[in-house]
Amino acid sequence: MNNYKKSVLTLLGALSISLSAESVMAEYPERPITVIVPYGAGGDSDLTTRIWADAAEKELGVPVVVINKAGGGGIVGTATAAVAKKDGYTLVNAGLSTMLVSPNFSTTPYNFDSFDPVVKMTSLPFGLVVSKDSPYQSFDDFIVAAKEKKMTMGSWGASSSGTVLATIIADQAGFAPKFVNAPSTAASMTSVVGGHIDSAISLPPAFGPHVKADRATILVMNQKMDAFPSVPTFADYGIKGSFEGWSGIFAPKGVPEEVIEKLTAVTAKVMKDPKVIQSYNNIGAIVDFRHGEDWITDLKLTYSMMKDTAEKAKK
Question: Which of 60, 130, 190, 300 is the most buried (most CB within 10 A)?
Fold first, then answer.
């Protein structure tokens, strides 16, 4: 065989391998996808992820299985996803706490650069909630009482976004709460309506059902919502800042770009589905679909700001 024929055969072999690899990737997904929610069942992260998973699996053609792996204020489940195989079959629910707050305010075995951001699904305004039987039925009443005694406030981890942002709110309002951490926002709300704690910093998917069932009262929120039109905002009380969480899907760093493209395209489609939009509205979440470089740049900027804040707090 002359050199020309050898070169042609080598080239054809390489081309065949390349095409085979592309063919395999083009078939993603070929088997069930697991999405880790790093909190307990029933909270905002769990509910927003399950709505996305139910809609996405119809487009992907394979089951999208949501599993709860709570612990460490979301760190345990997120850390598990960080070291998962980089093939797109293990994803993780991501949010302000796990991706931007915890890596800066506590010791975690991962950081923002351990993941590839895929999509943002929803925004969730923070709210301060008390039980319906609480003697504090306005934020003014709550502030007055909180300045006189140490009020308990539910959250979901010492270094969670709930605790960090609630501390910023309390500092501006002139009081210092005693935080009581639970495995999830849902568990924290159970403690509130059960009368075990005075209040909770929480999110609509967790407090919404209790408010609608007349078991809880929202004293103040980050922004006005159609579902709770009469609730004042933090800005109404002169508290500066934006206090909202968000829910998204991240993958371990280094997954094939084709995986991200496929998941992004599917999410773009399902987020326009009126049934999906209504499902999010029903739990008090605001559809806020984002992806790509602009979104990632914003995330990195917020991460840097959180890092600076954490470093100042240590001084």
Answer: 130
